[in-house]
């Protein structure tokens, strides 16, 4: 019977459906109202987490709804505990929502004032703990929330706490001009004041003025370390644009200007201001009970915390536009908006998708009218009338990410995280973000020659990575004329480096199809070969026969003793030709290793692993032989420097090469076999990458040893000295290149040509980067030494007491 279908043919004969649906199949029955059956704490949590996320919901309604639920169910212990925990979590993880969470607490104060005491008590305890730990960003976020609650606090509210914090900052600055904790505390105080003035309008103006008069002493003076972290490297006697863009200095000036405008603070949201039709709720807020802020003790000696602090410079990629699409540096909105966004980006590093979504929804968290409509074309900004904002939310978001990507000495998170945030933002809103990124790229390309070399390299690295996510498409025709520039020009340096990175991320033929004709020489036919030619295949090459024999033995995985007769033959022939026998044999052997291992990185690693003993022996025999190992690898993979750098990194891991060998080969040139090439190495992006990676490897290892509590004093001092010696060697070489006194440079001319002037400029740019690195590592070693000494003293005291 299963084969028999009882339904009549033709279908659509359901009588019940025919009577309840209309001709368009619309169900006319009354729809049931959906009931949220989730437990109350879950509903409150859901609403509080989503507060202000939607531009379609009114702030006042959201705030009142959550506050009413919490107040009505105040007796529920589970709800109270969840709410207190979630408030702290939101403040520390989603700082853009701080004013809205504060508004919920302000409304609760009109309904259940006793619950606010629990909130303040928890908040005071957490703030005190964070100050003791030196977690200054968390302290700033908690103080911002307290500032938003200023209207419900008794007396002067948050001001006594801020004044006590300032007294600690003043003591630290008096003790040392290099101190960064004091500067950080002053910045926190200045960022807290606007939220106090917004929460309690028309009040505390004299208190704010008194506090700002005190902070002016520290904020208006350039920090001793400011020049170290300036993103711009001015040439000659030019003044750096970053000299007057210290974040602390800007904040002080911006707040003074805002005080002159009666603390307008137009960009900040005021979710505690109810709509006109809800006068009753507004009256309750105005007459709500006041609460004493629980005591927050600040230790006599405050600490820097786990992350090293440095002065901050305000960096913007939209600073030279005819129509301002981001707040001007004279406007307090520039600092307040960026501060909230920066914290969001760096805190939510575990989820780039959510971070990108917050960037796209930026306008939801600030006052209406702060930004133009999303995805407004830049050309339309010119048509906006006077008195109205021309700030594009996409530009502000992109500008903030770039400010982190180009932060010196290092940003808080890995560089690739900021790459991924920009990529996700582009995927979420390509029509809005792509034009903003285009203008940012053009600004960076124009200004790359006067930027710090490390930042120029970061730009090159990000640019190629970003294009790889979007089909390698870019308007290359705009820069076509720059392909004719000499190789030592910074723009040509960028183009060569970016295209090389693109080839690494794809393959040459693919990249060539995306480029106009003038660029093709930069991606030459040699890059199309996955396996470079083996120079010893040509019988006219010296030692061709021996090179082929060694290659055959390596392929057969022959034992080590089989190589010795061939090596002896090479060395005897080299001696007859007045060549260094060891250097000649190393060149043949390493080139053969590269050729046999050219199929993949695993092949070359296996080959190196089998010949490690011979390579170690050759490297230990002479510095020239060790330098020749690098020269042979770089020569074989000259068309694919990325592969050469990977092989050299592995040779460093095997201790076949030393960091000093790499630095000497690239910069010092103490042996005949080197890669300086009369200063040409300074204008090769991959050489900068090689040296930077090597130094990073050294400093990372040194930091682990210095910071380890198990390291004894002798090991600690030996490690610190090794690192210092490496930086000293680099510094001496780079000073010579920068001053034009390097032997190779002097042999080529009298120093008056454009090429020699540019080599000197490149030497200066390199010198600045590695001088900064050396200073930072030296400071780290000193701090690690102090920490170890303090720990020993504490242990000795504990033992004495016991």
SSE layout:
Layout (H helix, E strand, L loop, with lengths): L14 H6 L19 H10 L9 H14 L4 H17 L4 H14 L1 H21 L2 H13 L10 H17 L5 H19 L5 H15 L27 H14 L18 H8 L45 H16 L4 H9 L32 H13 L9 H14 L1 H18 L5 H16 L21 H16 L2 H6 L30 H13 L7 H13 L4 H16 L4 H10 L1 H10 L1 H14 L4 H13 L5 H10 L16 H23 L5 H27 L3 H6 L5 H48 L1
Task: Please characterize this protein's 3D structure.
With 802 residues, the chain is mainly α. 60% of the residues lie in helices and 0% in strands. The chain contains 32 helices and no strands. Helix 8 packs antiparallel against helix 9 and helix 18 (453-468) packs parallel to helix 19 (490-505). The longest helix is centred in the last third of the chain and has 48 residues, at 754-801. It is elongated and about 100 Å long.
Quick description:
Helix content is 60%, strand content 0%.
Oligomer: single chain
Q: Could you say which structural class the secondary elements and strand pairing correspond to?
A: mainly alpha
Radius of gyration: 33 Å
Please provide the count of β strands. 0
C-alpha geometry: elongated
- Total count of helical runs of at least 4 residues: 32
For the record, give the distance between the C-alpha atoms at the N and C termini, rounded to a whole number.
92 Å
Major beta sheet, specifics? none
């Amino acid at each position: 019977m299963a084969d028999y279908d009882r339904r009549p043919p033709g279908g659509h004969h359901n009588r019940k459906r025919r009577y309840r649906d209309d001709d368009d199949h619309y169900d006319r029955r009354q729809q049931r109202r959906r009931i949220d059956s989730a437990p109350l704490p879950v509903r409150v949590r859901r609403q509080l987490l989503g507060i202000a996320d939607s531009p379609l919901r009114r702030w006042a309604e959201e705030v009142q709804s959550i506050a009413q639920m919490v107040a009505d169910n105040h007796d529920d212990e589970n709800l109270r505990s969840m709410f207190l925990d979630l408030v702290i979590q939101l403040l520390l993880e989603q700082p853009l929502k701080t004013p809205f969470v504060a508004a919920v607490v302000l409304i609760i104060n009109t309904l259940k004032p006793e619950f606010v005491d629990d909130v303040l008590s928890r908040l005071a305890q957490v703030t005190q703990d964070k100050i003791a730990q030196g977690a200054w960003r968390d302290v700033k976020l908690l103080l911002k929330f307290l500032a938003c609650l200023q209207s419900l606090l008794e007396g002067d509210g948050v001001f006594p706490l801020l004044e006590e914090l300032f007294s600690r900052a003043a003591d630290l600055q008096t003790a040392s001009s290099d101190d960064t904790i004091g500067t950080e505390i002053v910045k926190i105080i200045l960022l807290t004041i606007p939220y106090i003035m917004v929460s309690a309008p028309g009040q505390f103006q004299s208190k704010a003025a008194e506090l700002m008069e005190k902070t002016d002493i520290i904020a208006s003076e350039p920090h001793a370390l400011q020049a170290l972290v300036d993103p711009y490297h001015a040439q000659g006697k030019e003044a750096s644009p970053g000299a007057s863009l210290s974040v602390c200095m800007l904040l002080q000036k911006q707040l003074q200007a805002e005080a002159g405008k009666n603390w307008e603070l137009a960009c900040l949201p005021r979710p505690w201001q109810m709509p006109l039709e809800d006068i009753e709720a507004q009256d309750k807020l105005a007459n709500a009970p006041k609460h004493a802020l629980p005591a927050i003790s600040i230790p006599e000696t405050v600490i820097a915390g786990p992350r090293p602090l440095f002065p901050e410079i305000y960096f913007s990629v939209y600073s030279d536009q005819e129509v301002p699409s981001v707040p001007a540096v004279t406007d307090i909105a520039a600092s307040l908006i960026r501060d909230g966004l920066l914290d969001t980006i760096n805190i939510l590093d575990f989820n780039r998708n959510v971070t990108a979504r917050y960037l796209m929804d930026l306008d939801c968290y600030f006052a209406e009218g702060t930004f133009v409509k999303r995805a407004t074309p830049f050309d339309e900004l010119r048509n906006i009338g006077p008195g109205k904002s021309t700030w594009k939310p996409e530009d502000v978001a992109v500008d903030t990410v770039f400010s982190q990507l180009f932060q010196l000495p290092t940003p808080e998170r890995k560089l690739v995280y900021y790459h991924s945030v920009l990529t996700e933002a582009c995927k979420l809103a390509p029509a809005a973000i792509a034009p903003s990124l285009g203008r940012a790229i053009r600004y960076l390309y124009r200004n790359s020659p006067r930027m710090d070399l490390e930042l120029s390299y970061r730009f090159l690295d990000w640019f190629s990575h970003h294009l790889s996510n979007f089909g390698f498409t870019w308007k290359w025709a705009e820069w076509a004329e720059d392909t004719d520039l000499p190789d030592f020009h910074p723009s040509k340096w960028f183009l060569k480096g970016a295209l090389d990175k693109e080839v690494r991320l794809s393959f040459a033929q693919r990249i060539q199809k995306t480029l106009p004709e003038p660029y093709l020489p930069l991606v030459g036919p040699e890059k199309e070969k996955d396996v470079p030619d083996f120079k010893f295949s040509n019988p006219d090459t010296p030692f061709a026969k021996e090179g082929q024999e060694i290659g055959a033995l390596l392929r057969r995985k022959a034992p080590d003793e089989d190589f010795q007769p061939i090596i002896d033959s090479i060395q005897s022939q080299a001696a007859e030709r007045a060549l260094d026998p060891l250097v000649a044999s190393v060149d043949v052997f390493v080139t053969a290793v590269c050729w046999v291992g050219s199929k993949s990185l695993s092949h070359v690693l296996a080959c190196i692993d089998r010949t490690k003993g011979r390579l170690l022996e050759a490297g230990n025999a002479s510095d020239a032989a060790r330098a020749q190992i690098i020269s042979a690898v770089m020569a074989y993979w000259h068309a694919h420097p990325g592969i050469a750098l990977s092989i050299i990194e592995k040779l460093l891991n095997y201790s076949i090469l030393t960091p000093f060998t790499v630095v000497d080969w690239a910069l010092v040139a103490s042996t005949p076999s080197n890669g300086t090439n009369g200063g040409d190495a300074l204008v090769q992006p991959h050489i900068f990458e090689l040296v930077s990676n090597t130094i990073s490897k050294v400093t990372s290892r040194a930091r682990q040893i210095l910071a380890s509590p198990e390291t004894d004093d002798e090991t600690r001092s030996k490690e610190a000295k090794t690192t210092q010696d490496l930086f000293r060697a680099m510094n001496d070489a780079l000073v010579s290149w920068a001053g034009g006194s390097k032997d190779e440079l002097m042999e080529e001319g009298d120093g008056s040509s454009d090429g020699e002037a540019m080599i000197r400029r490149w030497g200066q740019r390199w010198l600045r980067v590695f001088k900064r690195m050396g200073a930072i590592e030296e400071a780290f070693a000193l701090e690690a030494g102090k920490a170890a000494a303090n720990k020993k003293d504490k242990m000795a005291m504990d033992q004495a007491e016991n």
